[in-house]
């Protein structure tokens, strides 16, 4: 770890804040007409502040002492932490990192009890958890190392009547027992187009994320999804269900030409049938003339001419039939090509109502083929957030999650904790890309590195910033413009 200036001690930051508040209340000049009651109230506020500050100091001193050379982490699995702990331990550092996976609730409780240094989570600290930390003089610092999101998408350059879905509408489309079979059932504006759903199987990270985020299923499985949910072993399978195959697109585009070819082949065959029929008639006439010549006892040369006419007529009929067989084969081939193009167009048309979900990293690779829905939260105004690097990183996009490391200034002042977090942040960008997550900008990583290394004082989490629900609160940034 690089050398950095010694931090000022901040373990009792909450205490100083309370004391300052009490002193301010005591030093304010009474308004005109104030009585001794006001002075008594200010004195009580000051005494209460002193008592609370003393209580917090005592609670802080009672926290367990951390083990030197050991960094303790608790929280959830499925983030970057396991891989980064392994990489850190292979780096040659003498620091030992101990990781538990007891869940976010237990981890935040332990953080505020002074028992762990870092909480590994996909949600921010809740207001009651932040209050618990502050009540023992612990200031909370939140670091973000990556983000993740699922994108709900239909085929690009198609339309089902709307571009924005609420999280509850997405849930209604996919949940077990869903009655939704057409897009028009989702509300006014959507077209009366059959709706069919698909997505990855349970081994895919997107399945687990989608199940927890959209379906409120702690341990997602297929029983949480509608019975006609199409599962695919690969993201490619889900994508092809939504967008169709490129070959079908190419064939569908050929349908007009194939139709003209079919009509021409049929017309030529019809004309050839007339040629055959005319040839048959000539053969019959020629044979009749031979018979008539015999009956009439025509001269020998005339009867010979009649017989020669039969030969020519039969040769013409054979040639006409041969040409008919060729044209029939050609017509059959053209019709087969037409039928293939028509079937391809039908498959392409059926994809109009197909919808799937994908990790954002996979969607980015095929954004020319996929048309994502903007997503809005069910509460508050309809904001319709477009999935993008920015809206996902900020947590503004509702179907996203931020991967967070939450610590305290008390732990940050420990060299071993700072060393581990610096190593983690240095690798966070590449690690996120390798894990198919959304990486932070280098500027954001550098800003957090300044906190960890002591070059800048960290931004402390405040009650105003703490989310009011289990999910991280969206950043107050303007919505990404719709495409």
UniProtKB/TrEMBL annotation:
Keyword Ion transport among record annotations: no
Domain PBP span(s) in chain numbering: 85-425
Residue span of region Disordered: 456-483
Pfam families for the chain: PBP_like_2
Cleaved signal peptide residues: 1-27
Residue ranges that the Swiss-Prot or TrEMBL entry lists as coiled coil: none
Annotated Gene3D superfamilies: Periplasmic binding protein-like II
InterPro entries named among the record's database cross-references: PBP_domain, Phosphate_ABC_transporter
Lineage top rank: taxon: Bacteria
Residue ranges with Low complexity bias: 464-483
Alphabetical list of SUPFAM superfamilies matching this protein: Periplasmic binding protein-like II
Keyword terms, alphabetized: Signal
Stored PANTHER family: PERIPLASMIC PHOSPHATE BINDING COMPONENT OF PHOSPHATE ABC TRANSPORTER (PTHR30570), PHOSPHATE-BINDING PROTEIN PSTS (PTHR30570:SF1)
Protein name: ABC-type phosphate transport system substrate-binding protein
Organism, scientific name: Nocardioides marinisabuli
